[in-house]
Write a structure and sequence with these properties.
With 212 residues, the protein is α+β, with helices and mostly antiparallel strands. The protein contains 5 helices and 10 strands; from the N terminus they run H-H-E-E-E-E-E-E-E-E-H-H-E-E-H. The strands form 4 sheets. Strands 1-2-6-7 form a 4-stranded antiparallel sheet. The longest helix has 12 residues.
Length: 212
């Protein structure tokens, strides 16, 4: 797949097509897009909310660095869950570093387009891999500093969502099966576990754990 536009122009079209295809096959969850920050007075923005679920519990993000030849930054497969308590982190920050997409030979922020021929594999820009001019190094020339910091906070809400087809691949039951009128049966069902978690984690609204 050619992600040239994503790395060099910031256009997410091709990447979004890949994710959309994965969503159709139930292999990807929620997707959000940010706005263009190029030449803005402030280089920070508040992104739309993104929904994580017990079965889609990892986050990835990417953004081009502008202006630049083909540099970008981001993170992938971050699971914001406390392994000791198995609950979502209330907040966390992820510093991310520059990567080179291997599609442009430019060696500074203002380089004109110089197609890499042949293209090379993506690699991280570190003290040992930055261009010889030392661009991206700190003033002491000892390390590459983060290009961005991603700050995330768990959003509080007075309501909760249920998700259809909770027990995927196992009778294909959804949250409606859990939420029956008989209170005792519902409480018993909500204690059942699926993939190591009680159904109250998968179907909080149906199990009445967040009515308050």
């Amino acid at each position: 797949m050619n992600f040239f536009g994503c790395f060099q122009t910031g256009s997410p079209g091709t990447l979004k097509e890949e994710v959309d295809d994965a969503m159709q096959e139930n292999k990807a969850g929620d997707v959000i897009n940010g706005g263009v920050q190029f030449n803005r007075d402030t280089q920070e923005q508040m992104l739309p909310d993104i929904a994580l679920t017990p079965w889609f519990d990892m986050m990835s993000s990417i953004t081009m660095v502008a202006p630049s030849p083909d540099w970008y930054t981001g993170f992938y497969n971050v699971k914001p869950v406390d392994p000791s308590s198995m609950v979502w982190y209330e907040s966390f920050e992820i510093p991310t570093y520059p990567w080179d997409a291997g599609t442009d030979e430019g060696d500074d922020f203002n380089s004109s387009n110089q197609a890499q021929d042949p293209r090379v594999p993506i690699f991280q820009l570190t003290k040992n891999t930055v261009p010889e001019n030392g661009v991206l190094l700190n003033p002491e020339k000892t390390e590459v500093l983060p290009m961005a910091t991603w700050s995330c906070s768990l959003k509080g809400s007075s309501s909760c969502d249920n998700y259809d087809n909770v027990m995927k691949g196992k009778t294909n039951k959804n949250c409606n099966w859990v939420d029956k009128n008989n209170k005792k049966k519902r409480e018993k069902r909500c204690q059942k576990k699926y993939k190591g978690l009680p159904l109250s984690e998968w179907c909080p609204k149906a199990c009445r754990v967040c009515e308050a």
